[in-house]
Amino acid sequence: MTVKIEKKIVGYQVKKAESNAQDVKTESADTFAPVEMNENIARPEFLLGSTYKIKPPVSEHALYITINDILLNEDTDHEVRRPYEVFINSKSMEHYQWVIGLTRVISAVFRKGGDITFLVEELSSVYDPNGGYYKKGGVFMPSLVAEIGAVIEKHMKAIGLIQTEELSDHAKKILAEKRAEFEAKQSNSANDSDTAFPANATVCKKCSTKAVIVMDGCKTCLNCGDSKCG
Question: Angle 66-86-164 (CA atoms, 0-180°, nearest 5)?
Fold first, then answer.
């Protein structure tokens, strides 16, 4: 672009490209970029931990699952808690080898960062060729690995990594009424001591809980509210 000079030149200065780069650098430094979980983050000396106990019928002893979390962007508006490592301890040595291998792989995925919620679905889809089992509460577990996945899902929900789908108060009220009506009709049959739902309930395909009953020709889950009749 041509500029016409109409006044007398009394001085000059060459503008360096470095000044522009410095301005850009200063501007970017003032803008806070939240730290995301990645494998280059060194393990701090202190981690927040939660321990869960499970007692599957396929194991002689209980398993204790400890998940340690790292706190990112501490004391800022972007503070988040993310899983960093997992340990599984038990008196039983029967599953020791593959349990150690599984925890190392899961911990490595945790430290990679990104969307790690896929782990829940992958672990939950592992089936034991000898058949699954019902844990306390009437929830069906296709394998021990699937129950470990359920614990990880529970932990992720607790720290806000997975959003919990809560039933509305109205839906809970309807389910409570349905359950009371069903139990009144089936008062002569005894309930299973290990489940909070009717003894003759079937497994729900949505939540894997033995809580599906048939009322007025309609299959309804008393746990999650899933219904074939809408």
Answer: 75
Tokens of 163: 């959003």
- What does the pLDDT profile of the chain (230 residues) look like in tens digits? 677 777 777 766 666 665 555 554 544 544 568 889 998 999 999 999 999 999 998 888 899 999 999 999 988 888 999 999 999 999 888 888 999 999 999 999 999 999 999 999 999 999 999 888 988 877 889 999 999 999 999 999 999 998 877 666 666 676 676 667 666 666 654 444 455 677 778 888 777 788 787 766 677 777 777 776 75
pTM of the predicted model, to two decimals?
Answer: 0.65
> d(Cα 225, Cα 167) in Å, to the nearest integer?
8
**In angstroms, rounded to a whole number, what is the distance separating the alpha carbons of residues 122 and 32?**
35
Q: Are 88 and 78 contacting, i.e. CB atoms less than 8 angstroms apart?
A: no
